[in-house]
Amino acid sequence: MRIKTVEIRPDAVVLIDQLALPGEERYVTCTTWREVAKAIRDMTVRGAPAIGVAAAGALALAAREAAFSHAGDRVGFDAALDEAAAGLAQTRPTAVNLSWAIGELRALWQRCEASPQECWLTLLARAREIHDDDIRRCYAIGAFGAALFAAGDTILTHCNAGALATAGYGTALGVIRACHERYDGAVSVFVDETRPWLQGARLTAWELSVEGIEYWLISDSMAGHFIARGEVDGIVVGADRIAANGDTANKIGTYTLSVLAKEHSLPFYVAAPLSTVDLAVAGGADIPIEERSADEVTHFRGLRVAPVGANARHPAFDITPQGNISAIITEAGVLRPPYDKALRRACGAARRAS
User: Fold this and answer.
1) Assessment of whether the complete model's pTM goes beyond 0.85
2) Residue ranges of E strands in the chain
3) Which of residues 93, 110, 138 is at a domain's end?
4) pLDDT at 1 over 70
């Protein structure tokens, strides 16, 4: 697979520019944590796992800068990293992988008793581990998820939960990729366009084209039509945060699909690594929902598509209740209800293994 979403170098974090796709494949080189934070905020990089990986790389950059500017000053070194961590945490509030990655690196530098230079190298190594581990998790998710589908199935997906949303391979698209490989291409995909950012039309369709997987692009409002006609065999989506009870935050429009799936007795799967699970949040009502600028609804890439003065709202995510989810596909296996027990058991086993 040739798509490289995030690359962590000692002196830079390199990101594929998702704002330029599908028209141009170009890369953005960030040399400071602030540049990575801006890239997260403006959606140059997006997708919960990819944001977490990028943030880990950004903290390694902050440690590098602080190691040189505060070489003999541990208090100053720690203060610089605290500032970077706080700045990164404020970029996107819904995706828990961001705070998870920050927490992983914070624990390291707080335990590090070596020189700032050595602490920086420790953080750099951990950021790269997080990157590589995310890819391994995605391959495992794909393998477990592919077993839920059969040759000839048509799968519907929403937004982009592919290589572009992770360090590589993808979660929901990882399942689709694994199905494509397992069944010698005998699967096809409906791709929701995913308004207002069109991550499905711009990004998922591009990834499937690169991989040679058959797909049909549809507007979000067409999904019910094809589901009612029996043309969809299952739905698989990603996640930005999964609460302890299994309620899941994902791109706006996901909840609507889950209701359609339930009405038509269609399997509805969430594919996500365990780093997306937030056991500290009891249910979906406690997950913060990012509300982005109304201009992103009234405009597209600078072009006004609504009347001047039109009022608009833009919640970037919605909550799918656990009762609408058939299974949660993780790197630890396929989890079934009751999710409160299954998620705690899986997360506990993962902690013990690490």
Assistant:
1) yes
2) 6-9, 12-16, 27-30, 154-157, 188-192, 214-218, 234-237, 241-243, 248-251, 268-271, 277-278, 299-300, 303-304, 317-320, 327-330, 333-335
3) 138
4) no
Listed in sequence order, the residues at least 6 apart from 229 whose beta carbon sits closer than 8 Å to its beta carbon are: none
Closest-CA residue to 46 (of 161, 138, 131): 161
Query: Range of 123's domain?
Result: 6-138
86 and 15 assigned to the same domain: yes
The pLDDT score that the predictor gives to residue 2 is 66
Q: Which one of 109, 138, 167 terminates a domain?
A: 138
Nearest of 269, 265, 256 to residue 221 by alpha carbon: 256
Same-domain pairing of 87 and 176:
no
- Annotated active-site residue 11? The verdict is no
Task: Give the model confidence (pLDDT) of 302-312 as tens digits.
Answer: 899 999 999 99
Distance (Å, rounded) from C-alpha 115 to C-alpha 312?
51
Same domain, 230 and 295: yes
Q: Which of 78, 134, 240, 247 is catalytic?
A: 240
